[in-house]
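User: quick one, fold this
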Amino acid sequence: MAKQFILRLFLDLLLPPGIRSITGTKIMSVCALKLPPPPLVILLFLEINFIQCLIMVVDLLQSGGGVLKAPIVNDTVIMVAAPVGDTFGCDPITTNMAHKIALIWRGPAGPDACDFSQKVAYAQAQGAVAVVLINEYAGQGPVDMGAGSAAAGDTIPVYMIGNADGVAIAGAYDAGGLGSVKMTITPWGLLKPNDLGFVPGGYGIWHDYAIPYYEVQRADAPPIAYWSSNGAFIANYGTNNAYGVHLKSYLSFTPNGGSAVYVDSESETLADTFKVVDPTHTKDSIWAFYSPRYNLNNANVAAPGVFNLTYTISSDSVDDYPADNSLTYSFYATDSIYSKGQYNFTTNQPMVTQWFEPDATNYLWGVPYFVSQGGPAIKSVQVSPAAGVGLLPDGGAVEILVFKWNINPAAVPNIDTIVTGQLSLVGAGSYAFNGTSDSSFNIFNVSIDSVNAAADTTYNVHPMLDSNSWYFVVADMENAFNSQALALGCDGILDAYPRSYFRYHAEGYREFYNPMADSDFADLTINLPNDRWATYAFPGESAADNAAGISFF
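Assistant:
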């Protein structure tokens, strides 16, 4: 039997006015902190957790060509040639691709490279109904692509998928040959009568992907920054209205080497009819389900382990496509790591799938980070810059700044965003590229020194962290350091928007991700101390934000 892959595209997650919720009334993030055994010295990882504009079951980014107006359902996948590694599609294709989806590798790098539009043109000439391009770089997600020399003639839909998804699909094709892989590409549903499912990426994540276990090992109430966001965006992908739609959450904790223990469970049922997409497209068919927050104290965490939060959808009807009726999101209690984005505990590095560069000559980009129990010190930061394929600019550098955000933690819900004057620099470090082996997409360690080493005597030169305090870890991407603009590595998978949305609408609490300034820190400090940092990719849920000139993306 042919293996089937579904690529579901949609934009609804970025349209807050059209999202409905059932209780009364859309990430980016930065950094990970690693604490080795005593003495506690933190290794801080910097990564930007990138919000997705096009999210699907297989992570995919539309890249030009025609617009997909109707689903391509269960169509045969065809590759240009075997072996898989040679299927770049840079030469005219002679294979008949009529009524099939062409799967083509991005690349190759170097003198034999060709642009994406030419690959599409060759596939289209042989009758392909769509093109799916695979990012050939291990660990990377889909990337945006330029129009290219043949773009004007490309009329079929074109998409890119990440390397991990592409390797899986291409591997199945390589093993089974033509006819062994089927693919569905849909802008919404699968044309099934009863089909409820999660909006991919549309579930509430916890404050951190990973956090030292002692931060949740407490008998008192957790700080407001650590409150959970329990819920998900659910879509009616079917052609029938749905009734009695129910979302259940079940949270467990499994200590390393131990057995899972129950922590909490909640549920919500929609009393209203869950209608299908309005034929006029003036209304979506997404509801925001959120439940009372779960309490991690119930886990009695005394050692590192993993929290598994499972969401399950049910209704009065039997679902015709149950594969997207359940999902599990994991986050970790560690002995040494704070991390907003995903983290690879085998390689001891943050997981980076995308790189992003704003339209600015100089920019600073980071995220606020709450520390409940201080005492450790920041030792170093890991960061992944990129300047296109190949070596990073010789003599260039990335600088990391660590600030303490001087506010009352309890007042955060009433603060619109970071103001430069609220920040005090506590640590800094830089990494200079050597011009010979330092390549784009690699992850680099940046040692962080205290700006007040005389006070931070416990850990010599490293800045200590205070309890119940916000810290702001920032990459300073100045042109003064580099001969060309640099992009920053992003998680690319986790999406903090649902958490931000739920927390505001359920609690009136505004969480801000990815504050950015299109300047350098010296200029901000001297000339613009009262400037607000823009929140990228979206601001907090507040009318005041728009009044202040920050618009929803």
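User: anything notable?
Assistant: The first strand starts at residue 3 and ends at 8.
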